User: What shape does this take?
Amino acid sequence: MAEKFVKEDSWSNSRYDTFNRCRTEYFFDKVVSKNGWDSRNCTKTEREAFILKNTRNRYAWSGDLVHTAIEDWVDSFRKGSVIDRDTILSKTDTVMRQQYRDSRDQKYRDKPKKHNGLVEHENSLEIPDSEWKSIHDNVKTCLINFFYTDLHKSITSVGVEGVIRPERLDSFMLGDLKVYARPDIAIKSKHSIRLIDWKTGKANDDNDLQMVYYALYAVKKLKYPIEAIETDLIYLRENINKSVVVNREILQNAEDFILSTHSEMAEFEKSVSKETSVTDLSPATSSNTCRLCRFQKICPNAVKRE
Ligand code: SF4
Assistant: This one.
């Protein structure tokens, strides 16, 4: 039977994050789960890996909910029929409750792409109600804060013409390599562009590099000179706006990093196949990574808590 997926030579920050976090996770994600979408023709293990690949932990889930809600608001603004704050809050609340129930009832096991699946339910983790409540409250706080951010002010003041929302999975080329990069939003003025990503977790430096890739995207794809590019991370929970400096040297280092890590991932992929024994691969270095890992249930390498 012909292969349905054509392997593409590409790089993305999230792909590298998985690779860097744990080679076993990367193997489950890129190799084992690959044919699992085809439930009639794949093995049980492939199907299981595919189901688990499509789950996420509660932090990623709540972040996605906030992203979707703000994207909806931005889209409504661009269409000239702006949705008000209370509508956004109430719609997100309804979706969140429904997705929680779907996950608790494990609907994703039949339709992994359609229904939300949470690692916490899949792995029967004991999460107190107070913790679920704080996840819910954090989503609400982030959304309320969005309406007080400098970003909200900037969008409404530049108007529809000044707002670019890169489509899903936008990309640029580094030689023959396709690099995926999609900032949440870009705001342009006559001679400059401001690339923005919003986050729902605590402010930290780990996300700075992602903004450098977005700056590369603005140079390579949107054709802006480096001097005309600003990059900002907006931490919604604390309402912090963090600017990330980019210059020629930083962008060159980022290009080198993308190319070298792409080679590392390609080497790894060449060295494994469906026949590779999972126990031959290295695990994550921390039990915390394993605790919230999508593949924990089928992983013989999971690092147990001390
Ligand atoms: S459970 Fe741990 S070792 Fe196994 S794939 Fe996940 S992160 Fe890696």
In short: The two ends are 46 Å apart (CA to CA). The longest strand covers residues 193-199. Residues 22, 24-25, 28, 283-284, 289-290, 293, 295-296, 299, 301-303 surround iron/sulfur cluster (CB under 6 Å). The chain has two domains: 22-148+289-298, 150-246.
